[in-house]
Amino acid sequence: MWGYSHVRILLVDDDPVFTDLLCENLKERGFDDISVADSAYAAIDMVESQRIAFDCFLIDIMMEKMDGIELCAHLRQRADCRSAPMIMITAGEAEKYMDRAFEAGATDFMRKPLDPVEMAGRINTAMLLVQTTRVEQQSRSALRALLSFASDFDLIDLGERVSFPDVDGMVDYYQIENKFLRMQKGFYPISLFRVEIRNFSALFSSLERSNVFQHLHAISHILSQTVNARRFQMSYIGHGKFILCVIEHTDIVPQLLQTRLCENIRQTLKELPGGKPDETFLDVTALTAHRIQSPQAALKLLSKELASAQTPKRKALPEIDVIEKEIFSQVEKEEVKQSRSR
């Protein structure tokens, strides 16, 4: 578990009175490793000069030259900041900035004046989430390393979530979920779609892991370029499934989008190793029956989709005893061959 003393925080705010008070309050609650930058550019310089990356960012939105939202988007492009919690702080009306902030990669939102107890809780909760994700990634890496000794059983986790930062509108699933969690209660023009690679396991299970990612990257680009919407986000949730989220009135027709996507992927996949353009099809399904939804209803649909995408994961992971039996079987066959040759 993340202890308070393990969290390296960068506080970015141009108000020295506020930063002094907040640092003092946080240190009283165990956060004793806090650096302060008085502008977005100063924060970038500090991030680039640090040997050890910051674990968490507290960023004021209203700053001169480069505001906090622009800084958040800039930092998210760095590999060492991609998963770090970024808590945005504003003295104005939060609703004006929330959409832009979450689209830029913000994790949370707080309004001045801050409650030090609540701030400490938000930081700790965010860090626990980051640690859980890291433990999961380490566990997967350890399992891959264990199984890599048997080359015939090299593991490709087809259920792994993937996000490509260079693809416009593509974010991790939990960023979309977090966006809905932070929205005010009410009804919005929300449209959700599932885009699924048909026969995904059959098409990709024989490819090397790098080739699978090349295909997913290419398909993600095509999705981003083909969907005609201004407020659009998408996420790859595993096993060949993408979620598309549009928060505006849209005239997207699933069947027409499906036709356009299938036409666009053929030429691209021809150029990839192991590509099967004539066998690769994308199925588009509308998840929302109505064009006006509450964020809570959208969240239920998203959670259901994530659960369905993650359920088959175990099928992609061969049981250790199955691998063991197969290895011993091959050893026995080899011993029989050697005994006959004598």
TrEMBL record:
Residues 8-127 form the Response regulatory domain. One of its GO terms (biological process) is phosphorelay signal transduction system. InterPro entries: Bact_response_regulator (IPR050595), CheY-like_superfamily (IPR011006), Sig_transdc_resp-reg_receiver (IPR001789). It comes from the Bacteria. The modification 4-aspartylphosphate is found at D60. Pfam families: Response_reg (PF00072). Gene3D superfamilies: 3.40.50.2300. Keywords: Phosphoprotein. This is Response regulator. It comes from Roseovarius bejariae.
